[in-house]
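Feature request, filed as a ticket because there's no other form

It would be nice if the structure record came with a short human-readable summary line next to the tokens. Right now we just get the raw output. Example of a typical job, pasted below so the devs can see what we mean:
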Amino acid sequence: MPKILAADDDEHIRLLYSGELNEAGYDVVTVDCGYRLLQKIEEEKPDLVILDIKMTDYRGLDVLLEIRRHFYDLPVILASAYDYLEDEIESIEIDSYVVKSFDLTDLKAKIAEALEARFPVWQPVWQDLPDLSERL
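Raw output as currently delivered:
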């Protein structure tokens, strides 16, 4: 089961992510501030991070730079309450961006995409072989 670390200073958002994503089959760990996020990544070894872009104690973009410095291949999905930021942060090294909503359909799709990119589904070699049954 993939592990997701959700960092948000809003308790309601953390509870929403934890409940919905657990139901979707993910192991979810949450953290309420940016200062503890790197330590939590080290302890929990998540497969993906959902990062609030604007936390009260630490700017999400600053935390993102630290994540990239120490855990460069860890997928990060930035979450924001503001949809106008999407165009402004395209050049930043994020795997995806979502506008916060109580409907997590978009977030779940982006999580699946990011995890698929990191852990492609394994296919046995024989699936790529041509069907030889007609020649026998």
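Something like this underneath would help us a lot:
The CA atoms of residues 48 and 115 lie 7 Å apart.
Residues 122-127 have pLDDT under 50 and may be disordered.
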